[in-house]
Amino acid sequence: MGFKCGIVGLPNVGKSTLFNALTRTAAAQAANYPFCTIEPNVGDVAVPEPRLTKLAEIAKSAEVIPARMQFVDIAGLVKGASKGEGLGNQFLANIREVDAVVYVLRCFDDDDVTHVAGAIDPIADFEVVETELMLADLESLEKRRVNLEKKAKGQDKEAKATLALVDQALSALRDGRPARSIEIESEDQKDWTGLQLLTAKPVLFVANVDEDAAADGNDYARAVETRAKEENAAAIVISAKIESELAQLPEEEQGDYLDSLGLEEPGLNRLIRTGYDLLGLHTYFTAGPKETHAWTVQRGATAPEAAGVIHTDFEKGFIRAETVSYEDYIALGGEQAARDAGKLRLEGKDYIVQDGDVMHFRFNV
User: Fold this and answer.
1) What is the DSSP string of 233-300?
2) 3-state DSSP assignment of residue 103
3) Which of 11, 136, 147, 351 has the fewest CB atoms in 10 Å of its CB?
4) How far apart are CA 222 and CA 228, in angstroms?
5) CA–CA separation, 216 vs 98, rounded Å?
6) Paired sense of beta strands 318-324 and 345-347, if any
7) What pLDDT is stored for residue 114 in this prediction?
8) Which of 105-119, 136-150, 196-210 has the lowest mean pLDDT?
């Protein structure tokens, strides 16, 4: 199950700086010239989850294991990427592999950091990237349509259904709208996903501001937030420079540093949580003396599907899930106390896992 967000944008907007802070490594070189990131850097990050610590304290766990998701720092794109300009072909191939797209947009002035277009305009930057992705989708669909049309004329039902989706996408793209603007029926979602359209992926706008604007944003950031609303997308304000500096500090010093800037928490926490929400994910827990573990599932996942995240045998041989809500687990002081109070439920195969469920699976293989 992939939970991968691709960090994209024009060169020199702060993508690699943000990635370095996210992964707390220097794996992605951040330098003041285009294409300093040649290969996509991939980093696993822990999802901030304060509930984990409380559960582990009650369960007296020896180990605490957070849920994780991946961020990919993808080489900077330039106008003409859909035709192979810059690192265009590689960029587009890397984008196809992610589940959601994080647009990092430069919202700060700095004469020492050059801008590829020579002016600071985050909306124009977004439109350059978005246009290249739409052009790539158009080219891909137009090539695919020829073969689908032939099969559809031969009464191939699957080809007919796919052709209808392709035509919907082409209509939107030719009208200047991304594929994600189309409402797709639930029964067509699998085929829609199979088209692997770049502009069908959910998006998150990150307004990368300077240190002075980290708490309240600036005019550039407000323009980004307005555009995000028009796109039905999420937007957050982050100072990649602050996050980079914060990542280098000992944990005990980070709180004071954030306080001095008027910030309640690292911007990266908001980025990770928003990315988590963007992918339609939520968390359930297992807790015991050995470990307390946060597990990631898609919203709407059934109990057997959640069990399968731990091990496929758990899903195959699923019998039931002993389930306590996080609130009851904390309030009553653990699984046994919840059981004694009648708050532990036995859930079957049709149970839809809720965010915060503390679960113990019974299975037989």
Assistant:
1) -EEEEE-HHHHHHHHHS-HHHHHHHHHHTT-SS-HHHHHHHHHHHHTTEEEEEEE-SSEEEEEEEETT
2) strand
3) 147
4) 10
5) 30
6) antiparallel
7) 61
8) 105-119
